[in-house]
């Protein structure tokens, strides 16, 4: 992959980010519905509504407001909340930590579960035990993460009383409590993600098992598992990497719901609070943050992919 | 064993669909009115017990099937009606058009249904329609991608080349040659997307971003059940089972159809 292709892709990314920001802005601002009216309630006089519209800057043309918003965001200024009057960044920043731990740990746990589960389902696919492994992944795929979360609470918090049912403790206050409070939400989020990943791991490994070079490795004396670990891991890593990139948005969205189940003070719960208050500036800012994160990480995965997979490197230069 | 996917999937879907069909005309009790004591355990006459309001859980589950399927049908068909033509155009056209269309699909791919639903709910307030719109729009890029990839495969075949060389107009090529050949792949995707749509709708109504409180939905039932978790955990069981059954039914049907279509895959799996 040459510097030129990286540059071209980078330009493509910038265009995507801008288009995404425009879509978000239009969805919150161009749809019918008067925010000032909603905030003040139906009893407000037309004069009061007009005054609030002016204070919020809603009376100016859409294009001006969009350009102001985006240039602000690029400088790190997401605007001020329509309800609290404080700037959005200072309200988002403390919550970022909670969401990052939740998503990050869930991703790690999901990979740790999906690799052995998927590999087992692939290698033993002609046996009943492999079928059971596939069935487990199928079930995990079909249950909503929040339902898994509710049942984890019923079992481990309500019945056994081993773990707390919700809330968040900062690791500055108590490392042990921090870990205990994250066990259930991270598990709930990871179970569903692991099921999705396990299916991809399974089909990636089935592909590997059918390769000529794999048969050669087996015939020179490697065991199935040994040959997989020694020669197949790169193939599996490549397909896992792509799926993780594509599934990232599923994980972020899942985290929003899981935060609600476990009353975690993360980005998602702030976002839902803002939706309830019709605080469009905060909604816009957090959604933009999430969508941009997905686009940027997929870009990074795409670039890493080119480096990990030597077959694509050649194709990349041709394009 | 090979057809197990199709059979189990078909049975699960049949159960959900007949539940929805029955729910159009009849439920044991009113799904919204109070019909018994609060949090009654499963028994008679409340087969699955009652919820925290005293409404019959079984009636609410049956009534919820209607909405789940309705949202699924509307959002997936809207997504397919928009996504498939765009994908076919992208697959049949040259560099520029194809690049712009797939880049657009990629950007939309960064917007999951929940984020779109949140944007709509913030702007105009949540309802069944914002949920349908959000899930539908979020599903479009999936159809664009699949339709494009499948179209490109068909376009490289000799019979399409023959048609193009004999000056068949592109629209006719798309209708007569491309669409029938990519239809099976699209069918698989419709089934899988349907499962995802039901899952997404449940998430939205759990968060209170979907249908209003007067409509019983599986997601909303779970949200309400969470308040009674210490007293009656069973209330949180049934709606989740219904969601899982519906989603799994469509997933398995999709898997089964895929195996049927692709003899090579059937051999491997």
Automatic annotation (TrEMBL), chain A:
Pfam family, one: BPD_transp_1
Signal peptide per UniProt: none
GO MF terms, alphabetically ordered: dipeptide transmembrane transporter activity
Membrane topology (UniProt): Multi-pass membrane protein
Domain (ABC transmembrane type-1) ranges: 96-301
Keywords, sorted A to Z: Cell membrane, Membrane, Transmembrane, Transmembrane helix, Transport
Ranges that cross the membrane: 100-123, 135-158, 178-198, 236-262, 282-305
InterPro entries assigned to the protein according to its UniProt record, in alphabetical order: BPD_transp_1_N, MetI-like, MetI-like_sf
Gene3D superfamilies, alphabetized: MetI-like
Compartments, as annotated in UniProt: Cell membrane
Source organism superkingdom: Bacteria
PROSITE patterns (UniProt xref): ABC_TM1 (PS50928)
GO cellular component, one term: plasma membrane
Principal location class: membrane
PANTHER family reported for this sequence: DIPEPTIDE TRANSPORT SYSTEM PERMEASE PROTEIN DPPB-RELATED (PTHR43163)
Protein family: Belongs to the binding-protein-dependent transport system permease family.
UniProt protein name: ABC transporter permease
Organism whose genome encodes this protein: Tessaracoccus antarcticus
UniProtKB/TrEMBL annotation, chain B:
Membrane topology: Multi-pass membrane protein
Tree of life domain: Bacteria
Keyword Hydrolase on entry: no
Sequence intervals crossing the membrane: 7-29, 67-92, 104-123, 129-147, 229-254
Cellular localisation: Cell membrane
GO cellular component, as recorded: plasma membrane
Keywords in alphabetical order: Cell membrane, Membrane, Transmembrane, Transmembrane helix, Transport
Keyword Signal appears in the UniProt entry: no
Domain annotation ABC transmembrane type-1: ranges: 65-254
GO biological process per UniProt: transmembrane transport
Pfam families: BPD_transp_1
PROSITE patterns associated with the record: ABC_TM1
Family: Belongs to the binding-protein-dependent transport system permease family.
PANTHER family linked: OLIGOPEPTIDE TRANSPORT SYSTEM PERMEASE PROTEIN APPC (PTHR43386), PEPTIDE ABC TRANSPORTER PERMEASE PROTEIN (PTHR43386:SF25)
Name of the protein: ABC transporter permease
The organism of origin for this protein: Tessaracoccus antarcticus
